[in-house]
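Try this one yourself first.
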């Protein structure tokens, strides 16, 4: 019964491991999509910013064109417009922590979730392996007890029964320390 229970637990932990790795891959793919989208938005915001800077349509003066400025700003992301509004002279508004956080936070959170699922799957794998080890130890009990039953030499038979008993006690004790799925 103990062998069957340990094998069953090992199988359950294997299922948990598979689910964890699947979720890890799913979240990693989501993270890649979100981070690539953030990169594209950043590039587009920077292109529009360069156009605004070189055309001068948003500056006060002869080249000023409020309608063109509004159209260009409308083509930027919300984070890009906020970064443009907060721009300090000589610094790229697209390097500020606020701007980068606005674009990359979701992708980074998805990557962290992927890492978390991966770690949980690794722990489940370890638990499953430990239950499999308990089943192997308990299987050795049957081996030694079976040999003891067919030995003609009683001393060797009793020694094998003692070994089997010790393995049984150790295997059961080890099995009881393992987490259940």
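Now uncover the answer:
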């Amino acid at each position: 019964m103990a062998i069957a229970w340990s094998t069953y637990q090992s199988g359950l932990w294997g299922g948990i491991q598979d689910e964890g790795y699947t979720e890890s891959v799913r979240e990693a793919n989501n993270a890649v999509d979100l981070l690539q989208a953030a990169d594209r938005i950043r590039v587009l915001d920077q292109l529009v910013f360069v156009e605004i800077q070189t055309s001068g349509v948003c500056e006060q003066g002869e080249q000023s064109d409020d309608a063109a400025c509004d159209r260009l700003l409308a083509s930027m992301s919300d984070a890009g417009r906020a970064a443009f509004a907060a721009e300090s002279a000589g610094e790229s508004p697209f390097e500020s922590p606020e701007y980068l956080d606005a674009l990359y936070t979701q992708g980074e959170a998805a990557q962290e979730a992927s890492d978390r699922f991966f770690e949980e799957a690794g722990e489940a794998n370890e638990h499953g392996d430990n239950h499999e080890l308990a089943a192997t130890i308990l299987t050795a009990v049957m081996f030694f007890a079976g040999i003891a039953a067919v030995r003609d030499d009683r001393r060797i038979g009793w020694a094998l029964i003692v070994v089997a008993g010790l393995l049984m006690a150790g295997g059961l004790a080890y099995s009881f320390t393992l987490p259940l799925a």
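Discussion: Residues 145 and 161 are 6 Å apart (CA to CA). DSSP finds five helices and no strands in the chain.
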